[in-house]
Amino acid sequence: MVLRLLTSIFFIVLFNLAVFSQSDSVICPLNCELKEGVYISWSDFRMRNTLQKDLIVSDHDRSAIDFYSKVLNEEKLSYSSSGSKNVIETKNIWGFCQNNVLHLNHEGHFYRVPLFGSISYLIANVEVITPTYYTPGYGMYGSGKTTEIRNFLMNYYDGRMKEFNMEEAELLLSRDKELYAEYNALKRKKKKEQISRYIRKFNERNPIYFLK
User: Fold this and answer.
1) Structure confidence by residue, pLDDT tens digits, 50-90
2) DSSP bridge pairs for 39
3) Other CB atoms within 10 Å distance of the CB of residue 152
4) What dihedral angle (degrees, nearest 10) is formed by the CA atoms of 14, 19, 20, 26?
5) C-alpha distance from residue 92 to each of 13, 60, 61, 87, 183 (Å)
6) Deepest of 39, 49, 59, 138, by most Cβ within 10 A of its Cβ?
7) What pTM did the predictor assign?
């Protein structure tokens, strides 16, 4: 309980600092146009500092609408900066924007973000290791790897992806006290049914701000 309270306070302070520094920021309301290109880090995204096509060293057709996804499907990305050539492993790149859709990196793969805002939502594949178990008469089984589809949330103000669960979603919603009070008045079953709707309402009430 104490840890949750401290975490909530941290999120609220971080959120307020990000929002109230508006003299150094630019508002991005819902459905605003995102700057196309590769974002090497989360801070690059907040600053709208993109790595664009003309700086990327690649044999792929730059006029193709899926140029960025093709480039980032390779193991490494080469680009020019200040007259020198740089190389970075694509697994270390935060994300990219293509056709006004953000894609985020999770374990070396880039996934489309269908809901972008102060609280973003996406679906990604996760590798799961199955435990070893013993079956009498047959011996040891298991210890394999499978791929499962999981839901994730991304807090715009720290750029971190976390697996979706009610506790995480509610923690992010709690930054808007009025909306959270409305949500908290619901019964437990209704909360689960309405959580996606309240995330969208949160994004409508709390637009993001890019830094200048």
Assistant:
1) 999 999 999 999 999 999 999 999 999 999 987 789 999 99
2) 95
3) 20
4) 140
5) 28, 21, 23, 11, 37
6) 39
7) 0.80
Q: Which amino acid is at 120?
A: S
Alpha-carbon span 22 to 109, nearest angstrom: 33
- pLDDT digit string (tens) for 81-118? 877 899 999 999 999 999 999 999 999 999 999 999 99
- Helix runs in 136-176, H state only: 166-173
The tokens describing 80, both together, are: 């020019």
Cα–Cα distance measured from residue 129 to residue 149, given in angstroms and rounded to the nearest whole number: 14
Cα torsion angle, 93, 55, 99, 32, sign = positive
Angle at 27 between CA 22 and CA 33, to 5 degrees: 155
Strands (E), the chain: 25-28, 37-39, 56-57, 76-81, 84-89, 95-98, 101-106, 109-112, 119-129, 133-135, 139-141, 145-155, 160-163, 208-211
Q: Any residues with CB less than 8 A from the CB of 103 and at least 6 apart, and which?
A: 68, 69, 95, 96, 97, 110, 111, 112, 113
Angle among Cα 29, 35, 40 to the nearest 5 degrees reads 115
Q: Given the structure tokens 């070396």, which residue do they identify?
A: 108
For tokens 């993109």, the residue is 50
Output the CA torsion 114→65→161→117 (10° steps): -50
For residue 9 the two structure tokens come to 């306070």
Distance, in Å, from the CA atom of 68 to the CA atom of 94, rounded to the nearest integer, reads 13
